[in-house]
Structures are given as C-alpha cells and as structure tokens.
Amino acid sequence: MTPTRRAILGASGALFAWAFIPRFAYAAGGRDPRFITIILRGALDGLTAVPPIGDPDYQALRQSIAMTTSGPHAALPLDSFFALHPSMPNFNQLYRAGQAAVVHASATPYRDRSHFDGQDVLESGYEMPGRVDSGWLNRMLEGLPKGDKVSPDASAVRGLSVGANAPLVIRGKAPVLGWSPSNLQPVSDDLPPRLMDLYTHTDPLFAKILAEGISTGKIAAGLDVKARGGPGDPTGMEQMARGAARLLAQDDGPRVAALAFEGWDTHAGEVDRLNKLLVGLDNSLAAFQQELGPVWKDTAIVVATEFGRTAQVNGTDGTDHGTGTTAFLAGGAIKGGRVIADWPGLKPPQLRDGRDLAATTDLRAVIKGIAVDLLGASPAVLARDVFPGSDHVMPMKGLIV
C-alpha cells in the first residue's frame, strides 16, 4: 500500500504532541510507570497454559492433552497445585524473580460464547457487547490525573497502539500514536534523505511530519530481523513487543500501550498450536523486559483473553468455547511469584453449565487494582467511566510492589 499525503498527515499529526506526554506525576511513589495490555484474541485455554495439576479431577477431564510435571515436555511447577506450560520459560524466570503472577479462574462479565461479543466486552470495558465507540484503556487515559509536566494541550499523546489496526481497547477520544512492524523490504539508505530534501523545499509541514515518522520508525523497528511475521506468529508477536518497548522506553515516549495477538482459538490440535503461540507470547514478555531497560522496574503488563475453553476435551484433541481462563501479569512493578486464584474446582457440579471452569475473579478488579496503585487512577472514575456498571467490583489490592 502506498499512503497518500493526506493519510500520512492524519496518522502522523499526533507526533507533534510527543513533547507533551505526561509523566503521571501522581502515580504511586512518584513513579514514571508503563502500563501495557496484551489481548489474546481467540480465547486462551487457561487449563493448558497454567494446568492445575494438583486438582484430583484434572487428569480425567483433560485426557489426551493433560500435562504433568515429569516426563517429556513436562510442565514447570509454580507451586504444589499449579504448573506452567513448558513453552513459557521466560515467564517462569520472571515468576521466580517475583516479577510475574497468574490470575486463574478469571473472566470478564461476559458469559456467552461468541468471540466477537466476548472481545467487545473485554476491550470496550462495558458489561454488554455492541459498544465499540471506545475502549477502557483509552477512557482510562482520559481520566488520569494531570501532572506538572502535562501540556495544557488536550491533544497530548499518551497511548501507543501497536499493529496494523488499533485494538478497540485503546480507541477513543484520547489521542494515540500508532505503530506497526513493516512487512515491506527496507528502502535504500539514500531514499529518506532524498525525500526530506524534496519536501523541505516544497512542503515544510509534511517534511516535519515525515522527519518525525522516520525517527519513530527507527526507534521502534531498528532491529536486525530477517524473518517477519504477523500478530498470530511467534516472530511477529516478538517484533511487535520489541518495537513497542523501544518506544515506551524513550524519556518522551508513550506510557501506555495496547497490542493484540491473534489465533488462540484451539478447537482442534490444541497441543501443537498452543506450543507455538505460547512461545510467541513468552518471547514477547522477554522482549519487553530487555528493551524497557531501567523503566522495567515501574512496568506492569496485563495479558488477557475474551473467555476460556471447556474443561473437557472434544473429539479432535481440542477444546471449545468456555468461561473461566487465565490472565498473566508481568513487570518489575508486579508483586509476583504467586498464582492468584479462588479455585472453584473441576468436579462436574463445580463446572459452569457442567462444562466450563467457573470464573471466580473479575478481570476488571485486576485492571482496576493496577490502575489505582500504579497510575494513580481514581476508583470513582474507573467505576463510572472506564468500566461502567462496575461499582460493585472493587480494585484488587496488593498487585503492585
């Protein structure tokens, strides 16, 4: 695709406001935090990602895809009850270092089985599907307290959208910078300066925006990567994370980001598919840690999906749409080294509709807890504007160091 001058001006205009990005001066402990949301579209099987090997009913329910902590492809023990999929050694290291946690048997308020509606609820923050005018992360940006370094200009850029299309979770009134890894071959070294010379003399405004765009691209994508992939490919996931982290690591860069990884619908052949996908997620978390450098200590990452999958395996060694699932937390600001779960059990009477892991933790409580303790968000604003109708869902305490 060849962008028009109008399209480039529209997409890049927000770069002018970069100098005025707020530092969240009211964040807990005077931090300069980063908050990253990763959406796993397609519904992650939390019982495979973090298997409850200590539950006496787990093996019988999981049958051909059940995991153990011994033998080939053994799961990584997290504690005496839960284990971690072996494709996530980086997360395991963060967990052991107290910088990662698991929230099991969690879900949004959505209780049906449509991917589209479930994703609407997860990303919009509303209790019912169909509200796609804005996402909760964007509304959270609007409601954050202004610090002394915030420009009075209401168009100040505070968010980063990663990917060819902005995830719903970060769409809205608050201006957002968009970036996506390029799938095109690199241009010759002399092309950017030639374009700059041309437009400097013919269109100074466009030349300035082009210079900002070239600079942003160099920061985010200055990677020696020969293989390229999309948001449903391990290589693509890592590229998206690494580029986003480079932008977030800048002193004057964004502070909040949203990414969406595709392909987590495992109706058939779940073992091989999740092996591949979890490698991509795990490498992405490692890329954030590596590229964020010193600011990792004040970073929180939430990895969430629209719903879980059935406790029982279907006839194609896969699982169907379910309810309760697993959310991952990572970052130097996370009080980790633990699995947070009010475990409902896997006996038939304890399963929702006789087939699903019951959800005992509201994902909104997790996000609210991080927003309050890391970003200094107001609980009242979160209940009223960010997650409307969630007055009864209290922010979860003790998630942030």
Task: Describe what you observe in this structure.
It is a single chain. The protein is α/β, with parallel strands linked by helices and 401 residues long. It folds into 2 domains: 30-183 and 230-386, Alkaline Phosphatase, subunit A (3-Layer(aba) Sandwich); 186-226, no CATH class. It has helices spanning 5-12, 46-49, 58-62, 89-96, 115-124, 136-143, 191-202, 204-221, 234-248, 270-292, 363-375, 379-386, and strands at residues 34-40, 76-77, 83-84, 100-107, 159-162, 176-179, 256-261, 299-305, 325-330, 338-340, 361-362. The strands form 2 sheets. Strands 1, 4, 5, 6, 7, 8, 9, 10 and 11 form a 9-stranded mixed sheet that branches. It is globular, with a radius of gyration of 21 Å.
Features:
2 domains; single chain; Alkaline Phosphatase, subunit A; 401 residues; disordered N terminus; alpha/beta
**Count of helical regions:** 12
Query: What is the β-strand count?
Result: 11
Note the quaternary state here: single chain
Dominant shape: globular
CATH class category name of the largest domain = Alpha Beta
Question: Taking all residues together, what is the mean pLDDT?
Answer: 87
Task: Please state the structural category.
Answer: alpha/beta
Helix content: 25-40%
Return the string of H and E elements. Answer: HEHHEEHEHHEEHHHEHEEEEHH
Beta-strand content estimate: 5-15%
Rg from C-alpha positions? Answer: 21 Å
